[in-house]
Amino acid sequence: MLFNSLTFVVFFTVVVTSYWSMRSWNTRKNLLVVASYIFYGAWNPPFAALLFSTTAMDFWLGARIARAKGSHARRVWLIASVCMNLSMLGFFKYGNFLLENFQWLMARVGVLYQPPHLDILLPVGISFYTFHSLSYTLDVYRGVMQPTKSLRDSSSPFHSSRSWSPDRLCAPGIFSRSS
Rounded to two decimals, what is the model's pTM? Predict the structure, then answer.
């Protein structure tokens, strides 16, 4: 969905009208989360699932980091978050590049290897929301912030700030606590 399309104008009008017609703050938060995922998934629905899965995983890992008793256990959960986020980012941004270089390297040693072309499509804002989500677990690990209580709580610097569409189009230099 493009910002300059009639579809977006209708979508935005429905969301804003719905938002201001609701009295409950919790209902408004739910609307913003759902609307953000609809907006993000309108271009490619599996990317909305990817966004949700990384958000949910870092929400869960942040809670594990906060509950861990020793520094070793906290570090293990943090490493799990870093590995999950960076491997997902690496796959989408560098998957084909690495495959082509591996093919070139195999050709240099005499092995004919023809990897499948993965035709990986890069999700919009993947670097932003990956580093934004990662900053959450880093902030919880460092004790700068407490883990959020609810996955959809937009009053916390977590879920809605990950899925809020205009925010993902900004530069990736936003810390979790500044959302």
Answer: 0.75
Tell me the backbone φ, ψ of residue 152, rounded to 5 degrees: -100, 5
If you search the block for the tokens 């959302």, which residue do you land on? 179
Q: From the CB of residue 79, how many other CB atoms can be counted at a distance below 10 Å?
A: 12
Pick the closest to residue 134 from 49, 54, 46 (CA basis): 54
**pLDDT digits 0-9 by tens, 45-55:** 888 888 888 88
Question: Could you state, in order of their start, the residue ranges of all structural domains in the chain?
Answer: 45-178
How is residue 58 written in tokens? 């870092």
Per-residue pLDDT tens over the stretch 78-102: 999 999 999 999 998 888 888 889 9
Residue pair 51/40 in contact by the 8 Å Cβ criterion = yes
Cβ atoms < 10 Å from Cβ of 53: 12
Q: What's the chain's average pLDDT?
A: 83
| 138: nearest Cα among 88, 98, 70, 81 | 81
Residue 37 C-alpha from the chain's centroid: 11
Q: Which of 130, 140, 47, 151 is nearest to 83 (CA)?
A: 130
